[in-house]
# Entry
Amino acid sequence: MRLITQNPTNLATLPESSNYSGKSSDDQTSTKKKFTILITEGPSCSFSSLSEILQSEDRVFLKTSSEKEALKLAQRKADIGLIVFDSASLSQTDYQAVKQLASNPLTKRIPVLLIARPGELENVIPENFGNQPVDFLLWPINNIMARAKVSLFEKSFLQEAELKQMQAQRDEANAQLQRTKDIATKLKTPVAGINGLVSLIRMNKEVLKIDDVQDKMSLLRSLTSNLSEMIASSFDTPENGSYEEPTSTGKIISKCISLLQAPSSISFKIESDLPIFKTKELKLQRIFQHLIDNAIKYTGKQQGLISIGVEDAGDFYRFYVKGKGAMKDNLKKNPESALNSLKSSVEEQGGKIWVEAVPGDGCKFMFLWKK
# Structure
C-alpha cells in the first residue's frame, strides 16, 4: 500500500448519474482512452458527491451498491482503471472483495481507493490487499487531495494502456517479419534451382548457337541472382547494422534499369551527382527497383521519360523518380498504393515516402533516406 499525491486539476460539476462521463453522449466518439472509475457506495462513500468531485472530461463513472457486485463488474469490464470502496463496508466482510480482486489475474492490477474514517485505518491489515495497488482518502473527503490521488492513478492507467498498445503493434510487426522470412525461406530453393538450370543451359554449346540465347541466359541469370539477394535481404532486421556497406547510388539505379528491361519507347534521365555513402544497399536497391518498375509500368508503351535524381535535405537524401507519360492517369485513383510495400523500409531509416502529381508532367515519387 502506498500514498500517492499529485497537483490537483481544475474540475467542474456534473449532474448526478449512475453512469456518465465528462462529455455528452454526442461527444463520446473521442479516440482518447477513457478512465473508468467504479464507485461502491457505503456510509462514507456517496456516488453522487464523489463523482462530482472527481469529474473530468475523459472519465467515466460506474456505480455499484455492494462489494460483490463490484467484483463481478471488475471481472467483466477490462477498461476499469480504479475501484473505490467504503472501508467500513469492507471491514464487515473481512475484506473478502479486495482479497478476491488481488487473487484474480483479471483484476489484481486494478488500483483500489479506500474511503475511511480516521478510526477505521487501525483495522486495515496490509496482508488483505496482497500486491493490489491501494491508497486511502480520509472522510470527510478533502476535494484537492481526492483529485490529486485519482489523477495519479489515471496517469498510470493511461501510460500502461499506451505501453500495451505499443506492445501489440510490436508483436504484429514481428509477426509480419516472421511471415516474410517464412516466404523468403520457401523461395530460396526454387530460385537456386533456376540458377542451376540456367548454368546447365549455358554449358550446352548447341543451345547457345541459337540467336540471342547467350544474352537471354545472361539476363535470366542476372535476374535470378538479384532475386536471391533480395530474398537474403529480407532476413535483415532494423536492429542489425552489420548490413551497411559503401553504396553507389548510380550503380544501383543502372542495375535496376538493366534488370527491368524497359521498352525502347521509354528513355531515362539520371543525374550525374548521385551520392556514394554507407547504407543498406539491398534495401535501397529494392526501393529504386520498385519505383522504377512502377514508372515503366504506368508509362506503358507510349513515349515517356523517367527522371531519377537526388536533392539535399539536411540529414537525409531526398531521392526522386519522376515519370513523364501515362503515370498520372493510372495512379490518379490511388497513388499511395504503389508505396505501401516500401514504407517500412524507408521509415526504418527515419525517412518517409510519398508521391506528388506534377502538372502536365506525370508523377514524382520521392523518399527520404538517411545519409
